[in-house]
Specification:
Elements lengths: L1 H6 L3 E2 L3 H16 L4 E8 L5 E10 L2 E13 L7 E11 L7
Antiparallel strand pairs: 1-5, 2-3, 3-4, 4-5
C-alpha cells in the first residue's frame, strides 16, 4: 500500500480514505481469495489522521482489525496535498473468534 501512495505523492487529503479502502480490500483479495474483508467504519481523529475498522472471515474464523494512518499535510484545507508518514495494521486477539 505504501508504494501506491508513493506513486501518488501530494494526493489531496479528502481522497485518501477512499484510496486506502480500495488498496486494503484489493490487497486481501489478491493475497487470499478465501478471506472476506468488509469495511465497518472510519474516523478522522485529527487533521492528517485516519483510523478504519474492518471485519473479516475465513472458513469459520471471524476477526476484526484496524488500520491507522498518519499523513503530513501541506496546508490547512481538506483538499490539501498530503504525504504518507506512517501506517499501522492492528489485530486484537480478543476480536478473533473461531
Amino acid at each position: 500500500m505504501t508504494s501506491s501512495f508513493e506513486k501518488n505523492k501530494g494526493m489531496p487529503f479528502d481522497s485518501v480514505e477512499p484510496n486506502m479502502r480500495k488498496e486494503i480490500e484489493s490487497w486481501f483479495a489478491g493475497r487470499d481469495k478465501n478471506i472476506l474483508v468488509k469495511f465497518e467504519k472510519s474516523s478522522g481523529r485529527r487533521p492528517g489522521e485516519i483510523e478504519m475498522t474492518y471485519s473479516g472471515a475465513n472458513r469459520g474464523a471471524h476477526f476484526k482489525f484496524t488500520v491507522d494512518a498518519i499523513f503530513t499535510l501541506t496546508g490547512q484545507a481538506v483538499n490539501s496535498p498530503c504525504y504518507l508518514k506512517s501506517i499501522n495494521v492492528n489485530v486484537d486477539k480478543r476480536d478473533f473468534l473461531k
